[in-house]
Amino acid sequence: MIKPFNNILVPVDFSENTEVAISKALEFCPASLSNCTIHLYHVQRIVLHGYLYLLTKTLAGYTQQQVNDDIKKSQDLLEQLKENIQKEKEIKVLCWVSFGETVQEGIVKKARQLSADLIVIGKHSHHTILPFLNTVIPSNLALCSRVPVLTAKPGSFHQEIKTVVIPVGNNFPEAKLEILSTLAMRSRPNIRLVIFDEKGLEEPRTKQLLLYTFRAFKSRFANPIYYDTLEGGNKARSLLAYCNKIGADVLIVYPGIETKVGNWPNINISDLLPANSKTQILAITP
Known about the structure:
The protein is α/β, with parallel strands linked by helices and 286 residues long.
């Protein structure tokens, strides 16, 4: 049974990332908004300014009143975002703020509490030079929460989903088939299945699996379906190069080998995308 994205969690940091994430969340809502809920979620962090002020507050401790004041400010900003959304769409919007945990831990916990169908991350900047600055790694978030995670850059604003790329590995991509069925409820994109020729020679089993997958998708969708073979030692980089070449709108990947771009564990496949990229990365667990 096809499960629509009726319960969408949008982590909010009140930057351009928030605008991107909310826009994409609304695009991924089902056509009937009456059953859909957008959850705006902010993890409150202590922000102190000035070295002397920082030292003073660190020694004195961050008082509960200060915590409450900052949380109240965040709640007010979330309510403003909620009001702006509901001016444009008749949709249910709920606001949440947490304190005292890391951003990624907070998102995972909230996604489980809400039984979210989708998490949408807006990501303008990246930290490939200093990867430890990444506070949220979408592939890890998908693995820990077991919820599909969509990562979008500003370049994907108001981009209709016309082309979806789906890597085919060593097993039939059942989870990708199901998530594509959900996407197809809103649009009829071209589907691009890709396999990897890692040794410079396509293995018969890989070609057989691709043919089987192609037929399975063809029997389920009326969409145009194509397939290609990719080369390259790093799958994530090869996939992004391919997406850039064909102008893909969504790349559906499994966290792990399809999202790993280097030796740094904090570098995600979406970090290689420039801010103006229209390609959105949808990470799902098998």
